[in-house]
Amino acid sequence: MCERIEAQMARYCLAAGCRLLSTLAKLRFRPLAGQTVRHVVVYRVGNIGDTVVAIPALTAIREAFPEAVITLLTSSGSSELRGAALVLEAFPGLVNRIISYLPSEVKSLTGLQRFRTEVTTVGSVDLFVDLPVSMQTLRRGLQELFLAHWLGSRSATGFVLLLPEVFKSAYCRQMPERIPRTADWLLSIVVQALSIPDREVDTLRFFKPPIQLDWGGLGLDEGRPVLVVNAGAKLAIKRWPATHFKETLRQLSEQVPGLQTVLVGNAEERGLNDEIAANLPGVVNLAGRLSLSETWALLSQAALVLSNDTGTMHMAGLLQKPVFSPMGGQYPAPLWHPPGKHFISCRHPVPCAPCFRDTCPLPEQSCLTEVTHAEVASGIASMLLAPWPAQASPATTQETVSGI
Fold first, then answer.
1. What percent of the chain has pLDDT over 90?
2. In the chain, how many H helices and how many E strands?
3. What confidence score (pLDDT) does residue 393 get?
4. Angle at 225 between CA 221 and CA 226, to 5 degrees
5. Do strands 127-130 and 226-230 pair parallel, antiparallel, or not at all (unpaired)?
6. Among the listed residues 295, 242, 238, 292, the one whose alpha carbon sits nearest the alpha carbon of residue 269
């Protein structure tokens, strides 16, 4: 009963926050209807996965304004993270300009003025589209609304909240039907704001692999099906155990003859992949050897992708590749399910999920570690041996519960 009350309180707080942002936007900015749009500024921050899930929304904006200059304002939060520019190399024509910044660069009035000058170099801003993060707070929403005002935008939209700032876990457990997939949520913001007809957006319209793979040089046979595996993740709370990956691949080698497996990741994950690949014939470790452009090219040829919750998972989903992912209880399903139609995730139910933590305080993170390699291997084998229909609907994305 207490959790139910908390969930209702969270719902009311969420509604109040959204109403405040909407009211302020209506008071400050003009309606879009009837206006000529020559310059669109899209605000979307985050790293690789955050950019990938925004591509359907960016595609809808480009289709709505094919002649406009589209400027993407973005920040990965750190100079060490690669961010949007590398992701969008594979989507030429989707945006005209990418302006990346670090938070420290816009904390002063001088920094903000320099930022405004750079944005408006190609002309005044006719439309500002905010594509907020899923963990958007009211304070952050107000800051982004102020940014649109500071840039002199005539019209602006997208100032919404997805999750409440209080009792998030109770809200998600009591009202799971209110949790969308992030890619769908961002697309819905654009569709509603721009009154786009209710139709499916062609997310691959602008995709063009920026490079051709040297299959032989990588130790691969282009004529055989490829399973791409990403066993790493930026946060430990998202990493399925390496021993589980190893046993999964061992079983798959017996169940799916002729399959070649490629382990991907950054250079720091090469040791992890070596551990998994040890004594497994036919497994190729390419961690640290592929650029992001080469990763796009590899994923575009994959038969299936097995991945933790990473940018690789989202990239594969966007390319409409079958994806299988062991997922823990950090976030509610399907919040971080990747774009695309062919996705299965597997998680173990625990009472503390979703926790919204970056680290697990428990000695064994059972929500993830108790997803068994037998379940994952069986699910992947069934997907590989009986491919999903080409015309599958978004409803074919699945969430399976481990051990039930």
1. 73
2. 14, 12
3. 39
4. 80
5. unpaired
6. 242
Q: Which amino acid is at 399?
A: E
The continuous run of DSSP H or E covering 42 comes out as strand 39-43
Residue 380 near residue 240, CB atoms below 8 Å = no
State whether residue 74 is helix, strand or coil.
Answer: strand
pLDDT digits (tens, 9 = 90+) for 268-285: 999 999 999 999 988 999
pLDDT in tens, 50-89: 999 999 999 999 999 999 999 999 998 776 666 788 899 9
**C-alpha span between 99 and 94 (Å, rounded):** 14
Angle at 370 between CA 364 and CA 376, to 5 degrees: 140
Please state the φ and ψ torsions of residue 72, each to the nearest 5 degrees.
Answer: -100, 120
The confidence score (pLDDT) of residue 79 equals: 64
Contact call for residues 330 and 382 (beta carbons, < 8 A): no
How far, in Å, CA of 77 to CA of 149, rounded?
A: 22
Residues 207 and 159: beta-carbon distance below 8 Å: no
| Torsional class of 279: left (φ above 0), alpha (ψ -120 to 50), beta (otherwise) | left
Taking only the tens place, the pLDDT of each residue in 329-349 is: 999 999 999 998 889 999 999
In the chain, how long is the greatest CA-to-CA distance? Answer: 65
Alpha carbon of 370 to those of 25, 204, 347, 373, 403: distances in Å? Answer: 46, 36, 8, 9, 8
Band of pLDDT at residue 387, cut at 50, 70 and 90: low
3-state secondary structure of 41: strand
Q: Does 364 score more than 90 pLDDT?
A: no
Which residues have CB under 8 Å from 356's CB, separation 6+?
Answer: 135, 168, 169, 330, 331
Residue 110 corresponds to which amino acid? T
